[in-house]
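Below: protein 1.
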Amino acid sequence: MVTGGAGFLGRVVVERLRARGGEPPIVPRSCDYDLRRADQARRLVEDARPDVLVHLAAVVGGIGANRENPGRFFHDNLAMGLHVIEACRLGGVSKIVCAGTVCSYPKHTPVPFREEDLWAGYPEETNAPYGVAKKALLVALQAYHAQYGLRSTYLIPANLYGPGDEFDPQRSHVIPALVRKCVLARASGARTVEVWGTGRATREFLYVDDCAEAIGLAVERDVAPEPINLGTGQEIAIADLVRRIAAIVGFEGELVFDASQPDGQPRRCLDTSRACERLGWVARTPLEEGLARTVRWFEGRSAGER
């Protein structure tokens, strides 16, 4: 079973699991099972009786959405995760693969982020409610392994991007937000594109297909219930990122950085050696190639809507 299997990452994970053979994954829908409620999470597991559950269901968004919905992001993500984990225990599910978030790391984590640094401080303020909620699920999984023997793998992906991402400006993360702005600016003949923040903050980006491959490996392999970073090990400043996107799109106007808006965490870059050692996984999609695919997908969708 893949909770969140109809979402951006979930759709790719489901495709990969189907391609590996065996029973097709079960994809529950939120209209049928509200995982924020314990009784409905238990009913889902009782109805479907999965052997392995991949928990991807989450309430997510960029800096703006996190600032506007801190209570919802904390409650919904924590509630869904805890209810799913308990339902799996009660329902005899043998293993959980859970997606965490890079937002769980402390604000000033030394680069590259190592899994041992996860508890070395408090997350960056704008993402903290979401990050703390997701990090609490790691504690839950480790506790359930120790007391009940429930097997689990907890993955921490870098910022995801790719075709099928959320491009709504109210909910999008940095890459889809910048792709949308640059494509629309080029199409309208606008002279400027506004970018939140100073442009000095750095991020690491992981192509969605690479993340899905790691999740597929985690389903198949038994590893200790410890956090595992997923990323490319390469960081890029937001200013350099938007210049690359503008070049791919063909936008030749001015990029204007709005320093009154938050940068978020100052730097992000992951040490991914544990993923290589435990899962035999490395990211394979270069950023330039992934960005080009993402731009083509958005341009094709935009053309179809006109």
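Below: protein 2.
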Amino acid sequence: MQRFGWLVLAAAAVACGSGSGGSSAPSDLMPGFTPGPAPAAGAGFQIIVPPVYDIEAGGSYEYCTWTNVTLDHDVWIKSSQGWQTETGHHVIIFYNTNPQPAQTRICSDSDMANFRFATGAAGEGASELNTLPGNLAVFIPKGSQIVVNHHYLNASTTSVPEAQSALNVLYADPGSTIERASSLVFLDTAMSVPPGQNSINVTCTIKQPFETWYMIPHMHNWGQHITIDHIAGSKTDRLFDVDWDPSYAFHPPELKNDPTSPHVFNVGDQVHVRCDYNNTTGSPLTFGKEMCVFFAGTVDPKSVGNIACDSDTWGPF
């Protein structure tokens, strides 16, 4: 199963896209890239990943950067803010409990299988400061190496020679009351959309209760329409019924609930996602270049962690 992350406002998937773009060793900021100042000492940290090169027209490139940051204490993350240059689709913080040498390369599925999601942001330019509501915060254990997944998606007809990403992470206030936040995602990493107008369906049966406070759909440039239904017995609650616009890949429609009054998925309920496409590429669209995803942020008092349903196959991410 490929991995997926929360707090990515574009709901950008953490599948590894195809491509042959190159990467650099760590270096200074590329010209014109101006991320904001780093958090104050002890309040969080900033990661600036090396530039990457040759983002071809129509290209989708996902990079993994193993940083030289290894946490010397447990942390609870409350907020994040990202910056990306042209073609930026998302920048996500993961953690790895088996630290590796600092490096940047195109992600592989085996790489992603070793990571756990923490936080992130999405889209070229500067994202808003994303702060979890109420007492919610994301946990990262002591000894974890920070790993960044940064994705560049060039929907234009012109190659982009260079791109770069940065992310600020802010801790919860010391001594504050904290409730764990996690993630829930429904997707099909084996999806393949033939040329022309076609649809795919993702159906999952809920295996354990989930309390969700934040929900979004996600598709890419060839998406036409997405519907998401929560089916509980004879009752169907249509959560989303959206004519897709490519800009939604970065700023999707969203549903929010107060974490104290979450939307609940109970055991035996079903989630059904239908995605309609107009594939004009002449080749099948696979996961990464295109997507059909329903993502939710969860209130997680039992520390279940991040859970994905990949075409009714469940597992952690």
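Residues 181-316 form a domain with the Jelly Rolls fold (CATH 2.60.120.230).
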